[in-house]
């Protein structure tokens, strides 16, 4: 990576809950600035999209519905050798958009931190991040930084990621939302397995409707997995009649 004393080396575009989590941990390792239409109180440099795009590493922490527009806006301002990294919960579609829209002189990594503000509230140590290098070699240094921060960097492809996340996230959110609609859960006569189930549901229960749509609708492998699960549940119910 290059360094210029007047330009922060990393920009986080999108300063919602996850963007704030990223910035909070990265700022101890690299100069960080943030860009978001709604600027929340913080002590980091706040910049517009053009200035964010001029940084050496640009992290896209925006909803998937906004990503294409943001990519078009930053594309003309990205420097040769700059690296763009997305953190969306699905990988096939963001990978395609970044490769199609961003200029050839830009390095690209599709990533998915397998944790959130709730699960990482006590720190990043031991948490995992899916890592899909798409263009350039700078991903190795970036991955080394993440390892120094305590993360387990798991290299994969966008397709393999989405296949696994169709089960890991797709079913977790489906079951969690189903449980949440049943009303208050028992909290006195409980088993350890039930408490783990309720805890898991609570960890994703606060996720936004936008994130739920991304996980369940934007992953091309999610619908078949969901249908198999619901068919299996229906068959179990039928067998008990």
TrEMBL record:
It comes from the Bacteria. Signal peptide: none annotated. Keywords: Oxidoreductase. Residues 8-241 form the Prephenate/arogenate dehydrogenase domain. The keyword Oxidoreductase applies. InterPro entries: 6-PGluconate_DH-like_C_sf, NAD(P)-bd_dom_sf, PDH_C, PDH_N, Preph/Arog_dehydrog, Prephen_DH. This is Prephenate dehydrogenase.
